[in-house]
TrEMBL record:
Record has Calcium as a keyword: no
Record keywords: DNA-binding, Stress response
GO molecular function: DNA binding; DNA-binding transcription factor activity
The keyword DNA-binding appears for this protein: yes
Protein name per Swiss-Prot or TrEMBL: MerR family transcriptional regulator/heat shock protein HspR
Record Gene3D superfamilies: 1.10.1660.10
Organism phylogeny: Bacteria, Bacillati, Actinomycetota, Actinomycetes, Micrococcales
Residue ranges occupied by any HTH merR-type domain in the UniProt entry: 1-58
Record InterPro entries: DNA-bd_dom_put_sf, MerR-type_HTH_dom, MerR_fam
Domain of life of the source: Bacteria
Amino acid sequence: MHAQTLRQYDRLGLVVPRRRPGGGRRYSLRDVVTLLEIQRLSQEEGINLAGIARILDLSKRVDWLEREVERLRPRADVGSRIFTSGPTAGKGVIVERGQRGRRDEGRSMVVWRGRSQ
């Protein structure tokens, strides 16, 4: 890649390398992978730099959201349980969503929590 191209990408914020003490750019492996993707999108797909910037931004957002989903998944699994009264008064049992607890002489109770946002 031409040095002028790298400087332009730096100015646009597409790839911001670390700087050496003398001011030279120092590209990480992640930066190089991003540069290759920018080159591919530009040359093979014909996408302009504004479009590439948007794609890179959305890609970072998707990565963050996927990590957030994985972090929150255990909470969702716990929240998908439904509590109902058990065979003995005052004792609760857990049933999975979509299943029914056994009725206990008309004293069945189901606690439902809506999804929080």
